[in-house]
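Re: [ENG-882] Designed sequences occasionally contain unexpected residues at chain ends

Forwarding the minimal case from QA. Structure tokens:
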């Protein structure tokens, strides 16, 4: 069997720059951006008249990128700020060196935890940060190295 490599996660947002800024505030790096349209993307997505803007961002230390996408046409649909137990992909998780520093950065940028920072046994100190448009980012600091 051919090898499989995790490349990126696609996240659809309304306000692309606000979403990018949120992740940059958490320490991510903007890697590039582009606009896509035309028959090829219409066929891949099974839609007609697709026009979207994409920005790729990567977490500090590397790893799979996030592809943040804002659809200009057709207009995206769906709810935001859904609870953590809603069906579907609900959060992305990152291991961090200093969870308190990340939460402080998020709060300084106007975001906060959904609940509290907690210690999961003696393995992780972790919390869920709610970003723009309902995005949820789990940050977890290993307690044992």
């Amino acid at each position: 069997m051919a090898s499989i490599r995790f490349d990126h996660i696609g996240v659809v947002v309304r306000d692309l720059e606000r979403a990018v800024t949120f992740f940059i505030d958490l320490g991510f790096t903007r890697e590039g951006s582009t606009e896509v349209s035309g028959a090829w993307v219409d066929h891949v997505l099974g839609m007609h008249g697709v026009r979207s803007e994409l920005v790729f961002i990567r977490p500090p230390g590397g790893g799979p990128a996030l592809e943040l996408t804002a659809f200009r046409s057709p207009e995206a649909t769906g709810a935001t700020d859904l609870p953590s137990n809603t069906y579907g992909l609900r959060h992305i998780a990152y291991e961090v060196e200093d969870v308190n520093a990340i939460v402080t950065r998020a709060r300084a940028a106007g975001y906060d935890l959904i609940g509290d920072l907690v210690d999961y046994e003696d393995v992780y100190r972790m919390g869920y940060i709610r970003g723009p448009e309902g995005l949820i980012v789990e940050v977890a600091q290993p307690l044992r190295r």
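QA comment: On inspection the terminal residues look reasonable. The mean pLDDT is 92. Proposing we downgrade this to a documentation issue.
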